[in-house]
Amino acid sequence: MRQQFLVLHVTDERAPGWDDAIDRPLMDAWLDHRRGPDGWEPNGFRVGDPATAREIVLRDDTVSVTDGPFPEFKEWFMGVEWIEADDMDQAVELLAKHPTARIGRVMVIPALEDPEGK
């Protein structure tokens, strides 16, 4: 059975920027794989600028909302998506081909089998 993974695409100030000649073919290949017979429909999306984000904290029945950007973040999310793979090794192999691996960082987190985490 295939497993789902949450993928976070984040910036990295030390990485090179987007180079259309290099990264467009990587992105096209990624999307082609996703649409292929062993793939799945693309379901990722880009996210807003850090200034549009909010942090919400509930403590002792008091809600605190802080506007972004958040000073503790050195990197920012470029986008998120869900992928399917047989296991973590295959997820890593797939994501190593994504342009974000070159121009930023990719974090992959396995989904739990059930909401209880059992």
Assign an overall shape. Answer: globular
DSSP strand (E) fraction? 25-35%
Question: What's the helix-strand series?
Answer: EHEEEEHHE
**Oligomer state of the chains in this structure:** single chain
Structural class: alpha+beta
| Biggest sheet details | 4 strands, antiparallel
Count of β-strands: 6
Helix content: 10-25%
The strand line-up of the biggest sheet is 2-5-1-6
Radius of gyration: 17 Å
Architecture per CATH nomenclature, i.e. the level-2 architecture? 2-Layer Sandwich
Q: What is the CATH top level name?
A: Alpha Beta
Distance between the termini: 17 Å
Organism: Gryllotalpicola koreensis
Family: Belongs to the YciI family.
Domain YCII-related: 64-108
Protein name: YciI family protein
